[in-house]
Amino acid sequence: MTVGVLLTGDTGTGKTTAALNLAVKYVQAKKEQPKIDAPIITFVDANMGGELILGRICKDHPNLKPWVRRVVPTDCDHLTSILGKPSEENTDSVYLSPVVVIDGISDYVDFAAEHADGAAREGTGLGSKDDVRLDAMFRLQRLTNTAMRRGNTELFIGTQQNVWGAKGQYLRGMAHMKFYFDMIARTNLYKPKGGRKHTITLDKIRGADNPVSLPNGVDDLVRIIRDLPTLEKE
Question: Which CATH class is domain 3-188+207-227?
Fold first, then answer.
């Protein structure tokens, strides 16, 4: 049984920090810690920007380090294997981890397009970087949905750039990613005099469109997740 949470927001609004804190606090709130050989939390750092944030969180929670594994996908094939079943060759699989964080879904799609050369596009029938983005996006959607609903996963967290109301086929397609998740939350950053304030708004639960501000941020998300009826896996 699993719950999928998608965090959206503009750059610098705290998506990665919120995602990792959500993963940590969810595990800490459990009465019994999972007894498994794999890491309890697998952090797929698709935008390759989460190392410092993870380091800060581990510093705040000294007992956390053995729980967490950070994996950086190098290309679409590597990400496919990360989201697939484990094997002797595929030791990076998220399959056995109860909590999975994929940070930078939309960044990864751009990454796939930037690294696609002309020959590869011709070989797959794709004619432009936009086509490559769309192909990578739909492939990632299928992979995400499969990984979310199988294996040992209890909580599956994804982050992506804020695409609400965006125009264009690619951005509309990225917005469709929300249909694969049970909860959609949006991070915001305000800069009142003398400081910075991160907030979280819960936009959807299981398809119900009912935006609500979460005054306690990640702590409120953990409470809602624990109260949410879980879905049976395939």
Answer: alpha beta
